[in-house]
Amino acid sequence: MQRVLTAEQMRFVDEQTEQIYKLPSILLMENAAQNVVRAIEQKVGLRNKKFLVVCGRGNNGGDGAAIARLLWMKGASVIAVLIGKVEQTKADARVNFEVLRSINGLRSSVKSTAFEFFELSERDSIEPFLSESDVVIDAIFGTGLSRPVEGRFAEIIAMILSWKERRRGFLIAVDLPSGVNSDDYKIIGDCLRADLTVTFTAPKIANVLPPAANYCGEVVVANIGSPKELIDSVGSKIFFAEREDAFVWLEKTQVSSSSYKKERGRVLIVAGSDDYIGAAALAANGCFSAGAGMVTLAVPRKIKFAVASKTINEIIVRAIEDETFFFEDYECVAVGCGLESSEETKQLVRRLVEGRTSAMILDAEALNSLSPFDLKSESNLPLILTPHIGEFERLLGRKVSDRVKDAAEFAVRHGVILLLKGERNLIIKPDGTVVVIPTGDSGVSRAGAGDTLTGILSAFVAQTVARCGLKAEEIFESVVAGTYIAGLAAEIASKKFSRRFMTPTSVLDCLKQAIIEVTGEDGESISL
């Protein structure tokens, strides 16, 4: 996982890198520029492209000046513009802009390719430069912006946006798209919408949380020289999940030659009603498809045979009314998918939660039955809640004012693992640590998606408990891995079936491919 830093934390890391590790700030700027150029080469190439680098007067502009020089040195056709005069810049940025002045002053016969550098007055427009450009590099504002862009800068942003729409040009942001506040996932005013953002050292809040993250396009995090231990020392409690997190979980839960069904995790799913027969089947099928060794599905007696006809042959279907099997040995119990909204359901859910002996996942009607939420979980018996925003507001008993803050406070107050579903899923530890999941696709937003995800997560949790016991940290990691892989499977399904026509069942069909992408293996040695 990568820590997500605020602008202040990022400034501290940069300062300490220079003071403690004696890495000059000019070198950090050069490393940043080299990483942007490397990303440009990989994503769009340099041949037959005309680049425009638009620079502000601060350090972000200094990065842009260095990028322009490096692109020129590699043979690209480059125009760099500074919104202002070189004399208005300072420190490392001033050094890099002075270099551009020198390059601009070379005789044309010395220059291997086209290069021009312009200092813009208040009256100058960037329209003439935009009209001939294929790629624009936005180096106007970095992490220091905290209020809406106004005046001349707002006009320049509008010009670049118009160019992008008109020419279908490729826009690359340096650290952040200009107009976006680094520390706010909400949009504060006019801003650029990049196709690619290269951010430095660590992702920022606006890089990872929507809607601001939607303006960043693809995000590349570049290491420019700050040591990991320094990044960790700032104590940020927001993290961005990575492929490696899913890979580590898959390695831990590999199927050995001596594996048997109990060792791969036993799951009880309590679900279904007259109106939601499919929800129970989706959860159970998802659980078994995701690797659980044994799945028991408890449904109301009157729909037992109807549900059984929709589940795969390996699922054990029993009647909720029997209840004798509720407190048998299971590594994970999942409750809620498609349950009826009634007083009997409320009583059943509370009885199961208060009498649990292992990890438990609550979704859908189980969450509504306990709203507003008044329980306190215990670390030795993890409780995992998986609400969407409406269910979360019912759990809170009020409207959400800040998605991240409210979710973290709720998880701490009640000692639960909270998976708050949304455009980017958030998973929160009982200590308030927030993990942002980057995978997922809106095409899965159809009936049954939550039931399928509950089934997948219960399988991941059960496999973890079977191998590692009831360790809160391990269970939290299984929820992260399960959500990451389910999201990746949704992305694969979107490409395979199209966003319009994919279904939650399509996600199950693509689970194996998702795991192959994470592990690079053929899938035979992993728990699918």
Describe this entry's structure for a reader:
The protein has 528 residues and is α/β, with parallel strands linked by helices. It folds into two domains: 2-236, YjeF N-terminal domain (Rossmann fold, 3-Layer(aba) Sandwich); 244-253 and 264-519, UDP-N-acetylmuramoyl-L-alanine:D-glutamate ligase, CATH 3.40.1190. It is built from 19 helices and 18 strands. The model is unreliable at 523-528 (pLDDT under 50).
Q: Quick check: average pLDDT?
A: 93
Query: How many distinct helices?
Result: 19
Name of the CATH superfamily of the largest domain: Ribokinase
Rounded radius of gyration (Å) = 27 Å
Approximately what portion of the residues adopt beta-strand conformation? 5-15%
Amino- and carboxy-terminal Cα gap: 24 Å
Spatial arrangement of strands, main beta sheet:
1-9-18-17-16-15-14-13-10-11-12
The largest β sheet comes out as:
11 strands, mixed
Structural class: alpha/beta
As a percent range, the share of helical residues equals: 40-55%
What's this model, at a glance?
With 528 residues, the chain is of the alpha/beta class. The chain folds into 2 domains: 2-236, Rossmann fold, CATH 3.40.50; 244-253 and 264-519, UDP-N-acetylmuramoyl-L-alanine:D-glutamate ligase, CATH 3.40.1190.20.
List keywords for this structure.
single chain; alpha/beta; eleven-stranded mixed beta sheet; 19 helices; 15% strand; disordered C terminus
How is the topology of this model organized?
Elements: E1 2-3, H1 7-19, H2 25-43, E2 50-55, H3 59-73, E3 77-82, H4 91-104, E4 115-119, H5 127-130, E5 135-139, H6 151-167, E6 170-174, E7 196-200, H7 205-208, E8 218-222, H8 228-233, E9 238-240, H9 243-252, E10 266-270, H10 277-289, E11 294-299, H11 304-308, E12 316-319, E13 332-335, H12 343-354, E14 359-362, H13 365-369, E15 383-385, H14 389-396, H15 403-414, E16 417-420, E17 426-428, E18 434-436, H16 449-468, H17 472-497, H18 504-509, H19 511-519
